[in-house]
Amino acid sequence: MRSKYVRLPYLNRLMKKKRLLTVTICLLLIGFGITLFSFETLSVEREIRVSSPISYVANQFTNLKNWKNWYPDLIKGDSTLFTYSDTAAQVNSFLRTPRENYTIVKTDPASVVVRDDHNGKKTYHNISAFPDSFGMATKVRWVEFLSPLDWILSKNKTADEMQEGLYTMKTYAENSKNRYGFRIEIRPMADSIILFRETDVLKNDKMTTLRKLYKDLLRYGQINNIDITGPRLATFTLNGTDSLHIIAGISVNRKGPLANGIRFANFPKQGRAVVVEYNGAYAGVERIYPAVEKYITDKNLKRVTAPFEKYFNNPITAEDSAHMRVELHYPVL
After folding, report:
1. What predicted TM-score, i.e. pTM, was given to this entire model?
2. Of 56, 257, 270, 317, whose CB is crowded by the most CB atoms within 10 A?
3. If 0-12 CB within 10 Å is exposed, 13-18 middle and 19+ buried, where does residue 67 land?
């Protein structure tokens, strides 16, 4: 019996230590919770580099009408159910969907803050664009502000969705067809010998003259046993308002004697060209020129010679000319 009384003080001390430890842990947890929830929001941040000028990239996120091109939830939605305010790129501009409401709360030419209201919750998207030193690429930074509880529960999911959205924005902004209306690319120029002839004509005589020039070149090749190795090509330069200077050429395997204004030229092996492929009525080729000119300016490229058209079929009838396959080449540095 005596041993029970001897051990009782020890048990009392042990119980006091346990209670003290429990109280301490509870106070720490309460303190952590107070500290955590004393912040209004917590943030998740992601960045990406886009190979397009800042003015074009920034327009993808400062204008709510462009969010359907890259924002994950909107890409998956039915855009016919979206409604917009009269303006889509100013403070208080809005986008409404069946599930969410997006409202611009702050904006400037290179950044925007958008409030996303969903099921009583508010999330803020702060997206900004920064140019590189040459102005040819843009860094996009997306910061999303969440409530502390959402930050704890869905931080990784939010980060993945943001990364998906930035990648989609990059893919869309770097697709030349979305911006210029045509798929434009830069290719190395093949080392080749060009048999060509040139002349000045009235605009209305363009196609008739071009056919005659090709006929002369083909006859020359037959007479001199020169093989045709590539498609026909042509360059057009305006002379005043009614006249054109035309150069018609064909790729060949070797040079021959000069005769009747027929000459030879070489494309340099190390050269490169901005190239657009086109399929359709020949009249539509005219729309490519201003698009490529803008592309060259945006990319800070320098033209080294006149552009030329390359033809991969030979229209015989008017119906054939409605189904032309043409490439427009701009030699550049």
Report:
1. 0.74
2. 56
3. buried
